[in-house]
Amino acid sequence: MNESLPTGDGSGGAQPRFDMPLEEAMTTQRAIRRLRTDPVDDALLLRLIELALKAPTGSNAQNWEFVVVRDRAIKEKFGRLNGGAWGIYGRIGRWLSRNDPAMQRVLAAVQWQADHFADIPVLIVPCLRGPRLPWPPLAATSYYGSIYPSVQNLLLAARAAGLGAALITLPLWSTVLARRALGLPWSVTPCAVIPLGWPRGRYGPTTRRPVAEVVHWDRFGNRRATA
Ligand SMILES: Cc1cc2nc3c(=O)[nH]c(=O)nc-3n(C[C@H](O)[C@H](O)[C@H](O)COP(=O)(O)O)c2cc1C
User: Fold this and answer.
1) Which atom of ligand 1 is nearest to the CA of 208?
2) What is the largest CA-CA distance in the chain?
3) What is the reported pLDDT for 13?
4) Which own/partner pairs from 181-190 qualify as long-range (CB within 8 Å, at least 24 positions apart)?
5) Whose C-alpha lies nearest to ligand 1, atom 20?
6) Which of 31, 80, 149, 194 could be disulfide-bonded to 166 (CB atoms 3.0-4.6 Å)?
7) What is the pTM of this model?
8) How many Å lie between the centroid of ligand 1 and the Cα of residue 32?
9) 129: helix, coil or strand?
10) Which domains does the chain possess?
11) Atom number of ligand 1 nearest to Cα 31
């Protein structure tokens, strides 16, 4: 990646470039939890977020806020939140996957992340401004649908930059405590946490269900051979 300062105004001045072919980024982007402690430049972080902002939002409200956390005390708070939820979830997960070595490897990576949380160089916390209405049903999908496209943009941009990142939600089991840690007003809701840094390991292709297995033509259950 050719890295230089972002202009911040989207005007196309000297900016970091992300030259990786889109398909390569999409097929190799995955949760990277083991990260080095080396710092990540502010300029690069701002460019990642700038690219995240190219995503759609409901009614083009652009009601997103991104909190970039480097402060160790705040990372420790998030580490405790993550560890609290992981203590329960991990125990259940280990028991359920006791005969599944692949899943056990994932859980070992999650454990590594939990053990090193405060050492992760940066946490990005994508948030939404405005209320999450309980009704009608489209309110929920429009609400979270206004942040996750930007999160995926950010993950893909991080991948193209060679950074390691993961989308996690365990630290948000208590939005009250997460809000308090970040000083967020009640009108702003944290939706995800993205621990970010230079990876210890290597990216590789992800394993996903085959397309023919998940596609239904016109009506649910109607399958045909997929070209
Ligand atoms: C909504 C959501 C919440 C997630 N929460 C966590 C989390 O709290 N901790 C974690 O380690 N991974 C979390 N993940 C990451 C998934 O475990 C990961 O994307 C999945 O295992 C696929 O991994 P891969 O992309 O490396 O193949 C979350 C993913 C999503 C989409």
Assistant:
1) 27
2) 54
3) 43
4) 181/74, 181/77, 181/78, 181/81, 182/67, 182/69, 182/74, 182/125, 184/67, 184/127, 187/129, 187/130, 187/131, 188/65, 188/127, 188/128, 188/129, 189/127, 189/128, 189/132, 190/67, 190/125, 190/126, 190/127
5) 31
6) 31
7) 0.92
8) 10
9) strand
10) 22-214 (3.40.109.10)
11) 26
Give the integer Cα–Cα distance in Å for 37 and 200: 9
Q: What is the pLDDT of residue 204?
A: 81
Separation of CA 136 and ligand 1 centre (Å): 28
User: How far is CA 206 from each of CA 29, 39, 151, 158, 209, rounded to the nearest angstrom?
Assistant: 7, 27, 18, 16, 10
pLDDT at residue 225, rounded to an integer:
64
Q: Which residue has the tokens 């990372």?
A: 75
Pocket test for ligand 1, best of 123, 169, 175 (most atoms within 8 A of CB): 169
The tokens describing 196, both together, are 């970010």
Ligand 1-lining residues (CB < 6 angstroms) = 30-31, 33, 106, 110, 113, 166-170, 206
- The residue length of the chain stands at 227
Ligand 1 pocket: which of 116, 168, 203, 207 to mutate (most atoms <8 Å of CB)? Answer: 168
